[in-house]
Design a protein that fits this description.
The chain is built from seven helices and four strands; from the N terminus they run βααβααβααβα. It is of the alpha+beta class. Bound molecules: adenosine-5'-diphosphate (ADP) and magnesium ion (MG).
Length: 140
Amino acid sequence: MSIQQTLSIIKPDATKRNLTGKINSKLEESGLKIIAQKRILLSKAQAKDFYKVHQERPFYDDLVKFMISGPVVVQVLEGENAVSKNREVMGATNPAEAEEGTIRKEFAVSLEANSVHGSDSLENAKIEISFFFSRIELVS
Ligand code: ADP
Ligand code: MG
C-alpha cells in the first residue's frame, strides 16, 4: 500500500448537469482527498493533446469534440492506492457495464459521455497531473 496521486476530470456531461458536488462526494466518501481542483474550458488543441494516446481510435475526433463542449473540472486525488481506488469508484468505461454505486453507473449518460476521467496507471497519473497542475497548486 502506498499514498499516490491521480488525475481526475469531471467531464462536460456532468458539469452541465450540475453534478460536480455529487461526484466529489462519491470521491471523498471513498477516502480519496481532493488536493487540487479547477474548472476550465479546454481548447481543441489541449483536448487533442491530452487524449493523444487515443488518436488512432475511431472515437478520437468525437471524444475531443465532447471534451470541449463545456467546462470540465480537473482535479488531483490523493490517497492509498489512489490510481486503482479512483478507477474502482469511477466504474467501467461503459456505464452499462459499471458496478452499482459507481460514479459512471449512477451518473453517466453513454459510453462517450461517461462523466469522469481517471488516470489508468501511476506513470500516466504523473504525466496527466503535470499536464494541468504545477507543484505549488498541489496541497496535500
Ligand atoms: P477510460 O476513460 O475508462 O480510461 P478509455 O481510456 O478507453 O476509457 O477511453 C477514453 C474515453 O473515450 C472514455 O472515457 C470515453 O469517454 C471515450 N470512449 C472510449 N471508448 C469509446 C467508444 N467505443 N465510443 C465512444 N467513446 C469512447
Ligand atoms: Mg483511459
